[in-house]
Amino acid sequence: MPHRIEIKLKNEFVDAIGLRAKSEIKSYLNLQADSVRVIDVYTLDAEPEAELLQLFADELCDPVIQKNSVDKPMADDFDWIVEVGFKPGVTDNVGRTATESAAMVMGSDVLGDSAVYTSRQYLIKGNLSFEEIESVATDLLCNTLINRFVVIKRDDFDFENGMPVTVPKVTVTAEPVANEISLELSDEELVNLSKEMTLALSLDEMQVIRDYYRRPEVKEERAAKGLSENPTDIEIEVFAQTWSEHCKHKIFSSNIEYHDGDTTENISSLYKTYIQGATKAVRENMGDSDYCLSVFKDNAGVWKFTDDWNLVFKVETHNSPSALDPYGGALTGIVGVNRDPHGTGKGSRLFCNTNVFCLADPYYKGELPPRLLHPRRVMEGVREGVEHGGNKSGIPTVNGSLSFDERFLGKPLVFAGTGGIMPALINGEPSQNKQAFPGDRIIMVGGRIGKDGIHGATFSSEELHEGSPATAVQIGDPITQKRMTDFLLRARDEGLMTCLTDNGAGGLSSSVGEMAEDTGGAIVELAHAPLKYQGLQPWEIFISEAQERMTAAVSPEKLDRFISLANEMGVEATDLGEYTEGPNLELRYNDKIVGMFNMEFLHKGLPQMNLTAVWEAKDESNPNVESSALNGLNLNDRLEKILGRLDICSKEYWVRQYDHEVQGGSVVKPLTGENNDGPSDASIVRPVLDLMKGVVVGHGLCPRYSDIDTYHMSECALDEAVRNLVCVGADPDKMAALDNFCWCDPVESPSNPDGQYKLAQLVRSTKALKDRCIDYKIPLVSGKDSMKNDYSIGDTKISIPPTLLVTAVGEIEDSNLAVTMDAKKAGDIVYLLGKTYNHMGKTHYFDMMGLEGGAVPKLDNPKKTIESYRWLHKAMKSALVASCHDLSDGGLGVAAAETAFSGGLGMKLNLSEVNCEDMDRDDFILFSESPGRFLITVSPSKKTPFEIIMGDIVKEIGVVTEEKTVEVTGLGGESVISCDTAALKHAWQKTLSFKEES
Amino acid sequence: MSDTVRVLVLAGNGINCENETAHACKLAGADQVDIVYIWDLAAGKATLDGYHIVLFPGGFLDGDDLGSAKASTIRLRHTEVDNKSLVSQIRDHVDGGGLVMGICNGFQLMIKLGLLPSLDGIHDPQATLTWNDSGRFEDRWVTLKVDPDSPSIFTKGIDTLELPVRHGEGKIVAPVETMETINERHLAPMAYINPETGEPTTEYPYNPNGTYLGMAALTDPSGRLFGMMPHPEAFVHRTNHPQWTRKELPEEGAGLILFKNAINYIKDNF
Description:
Oligomer: heterodimer
Order of helices and strands of chain B: EHEHEHEEHEHEEEEHEEEEH
Strand content of chain B: 15-25%
Strand order of the largest sheet of chain B: 2-1-3-6-14-13
Shape of chain A: globular
Radius of gyration of chain A: 29 Å
CATH superfamily of chain B: Class I glutamine amidotransferase (GATase) domain
Radius of gyration of chain B: 17 Å
């Protein structure tokens, strides 16, 4: 019989976790609990002697503040109990650790293969109805997709025996077999088969696969290996993974006929033409000074940092899983992207994380369509996922942002990025190179395989619908991964691996598949794979996306050392077979062949899609501002209001809960200024503590502009990313950029009538990226696209606004010369770099005023713009700049207010000094979002040398003042803004501070 | 007089500040700094023998899954090499006059192993570290004041200093009488203060976790065992300070003094 160990905080001590739950019950559900206390429950599925069991209970318990009991309930003072645990098969990290502890305390022989499962009891007091308590359980304490829960009223509680003992153990009895599946079906049947099996394959693709099996040579070869003519389920599943939009980027590689007015253009592969094409052109222009080392071929981009060190960077999206389980989705997103740079080249050490969320309004009051979680839960879930993923891995989260739009209710966007660093040479070889050889063993390292994460790749290749599989949801395990990365870096330095890659989307099928391309083929013995529980089918083992796993290629003579070092360091490493010369990838289960592919066909057999894109330009004429309902507000009120907007307001609540300083290299933090709460434009970290050279990380994102023209949305995103880096002192001539496209489905179909326009938006976006990368001489080193960010259930269809995240990574030679955005001293001169245009379309100002129309912000002269950044950098290298802040969301008004209150000072500005074109309104000058602009403050003592360098690209527009107010003189010479910085700062801080919770 | 000071910095199983902690020790003048994996101690491939200072850096030992550092206290107590548990190895090191310093998660490990406060040399846990009053992890800079009457050799000569805290479980908790004894015997060498008043405080955010009297660190009566929640290794250069672009700061970060004190103590006593 299993046993329940309960651990309870002694009553005299404050229960912080209970208090947090109590305040969240109030702030999320507006329900009032009088008190909440928690009991942690460990269910042990074994029968040790009573003394041993008690010993284990005592070890689990912190004797100073906790009490424990075995098989006796500790719950005493409560009106309701909600006990929350996991469903069978869901990752239970605490349970895993408790199982390890149990083996140490009671002896692994006593424990056997039995395990410890955790759950938590919330003892709630208060006058709450059953319905209200059920809402506390399902809308706050658990996600019914992964959690089980029990609600018990005091009167119904058995104070003698407590809760019924539940062991959420996975028991699958099915025999592992590979089933044949005939593809000799009608077109309609093929389409249905694709849907039923969540293959996300189109009819054409199903037909191509069917025809492959009709080939005589294939039939012959299969017969020779004792395989039937029909494909096996594992083969079909592997095609689906390898050919999924998620893995193959079919839309980015398609043939596109692009119509813009009367002109028609044929584009073969947006990816090759505009993404790779941009980098190719930039690298050719750089000639000998080209610093790219490995781009678009490995898990992440690699470029040169110093003669001795290489940088590695990757940004991923994890949208679909985050929609179903925000915490697990974001957590696996961050630990998942960690494995990309870690598994690039010979392997890198991870030194920073980034995260960007696109969400719906957390204060959303409307109806929630089926299967969607409230934006507030999504927000807190993804935040906590990144917190645990980054903090527990010891990687500082240094840069990020949040962007809000009601359409992100349909699918939240979760971008997670990671930077790594590796020695330029490892054991005498360039660290960016890796190569598996025939005869090398296939070694899986890290976590075990379960049903979790099955069909992740295919499910994220389609819209969110009723049938979206719950198994695609996972919870990451940072500690298992930390042990693994510690071990793999040691193995790397001992030269124990020839090749290393991540098990991400598609699991073993893609990691082994990719590495087998080096040698030509592989033979995999699936029965050897370590499982979380028995009963997995061969196809499930091969495509499961269970987390914290890497695949290595290890030469036979190094195998013993590799495995024993792994085991010493608490890491599981298993031999799953051999890389061969090919030409086939052969899958076995207990020596029986269950699947076989021709590598050539698997990787090159997918036909290119043919798509049509039709562009329709929008009207960009300005509306009548006086028609706005808010026309009554004066500019003081408008400035305060715009500072409080979700996109613009302070994100300190997030930043504080991320460790942004671990590893000791922090130079410019996400928060800065007199009270450590001003918004830094970018972060600087020193990944090598012996060097003062720093890595600068920032990003640009402006999905709002997509509603007018994605071409300018994209150039603004790139420019904003570059500007943010330049603000803190990065060299514009040594930058790399990463592109992450999150689009709504751009393939026209009956259910997606405007697909051709959405595809045109994608075409224009990639064109702009190429044009500006070439102008700015910045290579794209890595990227990712996610194409099906739509929600469609019943008659509700929500498509996200086309979104491009540009992450930029730069360098600062001497971190001592870094610049922050906060005003430093009263009397400093305020300059504006760049020209202000009548760019009001989709600005925060128009959005706030409820105004449609207006010209989208765009770059007037990109080559001149990047040149001005070079001059600014020159001034910074001569230590002439006191502060520098980029003008983006909310324009000059927001930048001036932030600069002033972050420095604990004030500012006087004169709008008639601003260098503008075609502008005759104070509000437009204040809130235009023209790119290419900076607000700079300079000490009077450095005025002359600064102006000598900058010439006419800057204009003096005001002064920093001791008096803590923002004073703005309008075009007519009268005062248009006179506002205490305290009031402005309060407006900026209150929106997302969630003060009531702490 | 010892001519070479040897420092062991523990790593592995969720520890994640080993590199910057080792870096700080080198900057502070240690002659030999070895990053040693907890796994190598468990496998008997490394021991504490020959090291003057043992450092438990920050991190998330075993993911803090059973409460901060809890699972690793079980690990250290139940892992034996030559019939000797890793905990007894640590005690031998202490009995031999060596120093032990725990930072953040390392402090949580020491207090749960009963190494701190070690009133009257008792080695059963007498105090613990638990959740901040907010129930949340936080990264923010705090101002600390040192108790000049504390026996700690680590905090000698320091008045106040600024350091970052980065923890969710930093509240020192013990029975009232134990907290009083710690206070009376000056075994809490550092306190969170309100920079305005200069006085120890329980007021958030100056005190990020709500610990009684603002206690931020503990020492044993000998002064040779020391644990603190703030991160001195995170302020070894002026550019680590959140306001370095606004202030005239010396190039060397204030956090380095604690490591120098430890190393100088070894130089003078071995």
